[in-house]
Amino acid sequence: MIELASIHNPRLQEIRKAARAGRPLEDGRIVAEGPHLLEDALGSAWRVEEIFATEAARARFGELLGRARASVTAVSERAMASLAATETSQGIVMLLEARRWSWDELLRGVPLVVVLDAVQDPGNAGTVIRSAEAFGASGIVLGEGSVRVSNGKLLRAAAGSLFRMPFVENISADELRDQLESRGVRMYGLAADKGVIIGEADLRCGCALAVGNEGAGLSRELLDGAELVRIPTRRVESLNAGVACSIALFEAARQRERR
């Protein structure tokens, strides 16, 4: 097996630039890192297209790499260090083809959709996506201005949930509104100090929960079409996006279990 040793290799440079920018490669493939994400991807509808691994990683994770049934390219430790985004890389970087989801799949049955409205922090977005899976949401909408699915920090923060949850991304407010209205799906917007208490809203119906940008909150475009709900707090003005949305999703699951 020929080893790519130089950090100046054009192929590795292309992958490194995409990973650092949190964007896909020109062919649409997404850069991900680490054996845990590789294992999660293998059990999902995403495709593992290619793997880059050090000699130590090939020895340690040989069985996992074999299950991937993807081409494995050997890279030197130095080249891997230039590719990896984490401080303690485990020697595996892979290229993934994301599953393409439709609105019909997101809005199936009695939908419970989470809308990220320009949520830019990958940690917050990842928390929301994990909670969405944990509490039975039917899908995720990443609106315009939100962190991209190709962001490595988001993939790690979502801890595999993004591989399993239906999602659409870079969605405009107009497209979102058209899709929800055509299917009779109600949209609730999480607000810090306005609207009804979350426990008083009817979350048993087909609905979408929209959470806004960490600093600006919900955009005007979504505020115009949303019923506002709030989570009562003491001594603090508001909760961050990940915590607030997780609480709202828990309440939705609680109501739906009692249907």
State Rg: 20 Å
Q: Give the termini distance in whole angstroms.
A: 58 Å
What is the annotated CATH architecture of the largest domain?
A: 3-Layer(aba) Sandwich
Net shape: elongated
Q: What count of domains describes the coordinates?
A: 2
Per the CATH scheme, the topology name of the largest domain is Alpha/beta knot
Strand order of the largest sheet: 8-7-6-11-9-12-10
SSE pattern, N- to C-terminal: EHEHEHHEHEHEHEHHEHEEEHEH
Give helix % range: 25-40%
Q: What percentage of the residues does DSSP assign to strands (E)?
A: 15-25%
What CATH first level of the largest domain would be assigned?
Answer: Alpha Beta
Number of strands: 12
Determine the structural class based on helices, strands and strand pairing: alpha/beta
What number is the mean pLDDT?
92
Tell me the layout of helices and strands.
Layout: E1 3-4, H1 10-21, E2 30-33, H2 35-42, E3 47-53, H3 55-60, H4 62-68, E4 71-75, H5 77-83, E5 92-97, H6 103-106, E6 112-116, H7 122-134, E7 139-143, H8 152-158, H9 161-164, E8 167-171, H10 173-182, E9 186-191, E10 196-197, E11 207-211, H11 220-223, E12 227-230, H12 241-257
Parallel strand pairs: 1-4, 3-4, 6-7, 6-11, 7-8, 9-11, 9-12, 10-12
Antiparallel strand pairs: 2-5, 3-5
